[in-house]
Amino acid sequence: MRTRHPPSTTWVLPAASLLASVLLWQLLASTRPHLGLITFANAPSPREVLDAGWTLLQSPRLLFHLGHSLARVFAGFAAAAVAGIALGLAIGRFGWARGTLLPPLEVLRPIPAVAWIPLSVLLFPSSEVSMMFITFIGALFPILLATVHGVEGVDARLVASARSLGARRWRVFAEVIVPGAAPAMVTGLAIGMGTCWFCLVTAEMIAGQFGIGYYTWESYTLQNYPDIVVGMLLIGVLGMGSSALVRALGRLAMPWLGAAR
Asked: Where would I find the ABC transmembrane type-1 domain in this sequence (predicted)?
């Protein structure tokens, strides 16, 4: 049975945690201590970051950078979702797919997305396409592995029951395997969305001319320290919000889970 928490704890504890983090940040920025290898001499205060964020909010640059980053992330994520789910369903269900597709994918999986940047620049004539490819690579493997584990975790008794009732192979696949693996697939999609932002920012810092990652790196080169934190916070909020959106859409697409609970 699902544990129900008091309504107050759903927002009081997160709000208190965020407030404590901001207060600690303010303390470190005002006292500027030297803690061994870490120094806060150049750390901007929350007020400085708030002022920088307000300035950016009033500037047309915000929508300009956001538009480019969002387009790159969602294009790469959409392609990774299609490829990762299709490959994961095939590998998790069919032995021939596991034997032929999984070994080369396992060789590629440990390669970090940043290592693909030089090759993507050589493969694609457009820097935009190369950055979309980096986000695709970053999201592909979390989605793929989650889908494979979801398919493997489907109760064999459900499959046997469907077959005993006369369901054919592809109907079992569509009505038992896919719905049974759907929760794991949504988890992989949410993780992949977060990885998309990580990979995109890295690509924009190295090969981009627009976007939130480029804005953050440009702020560093110009020594605008509050703007660096603004860029970091934007990336965090966008990553958290887009992952939450994926999970919310997943819950809407899986009404049978709510009925079971």
From this structure: 66-246
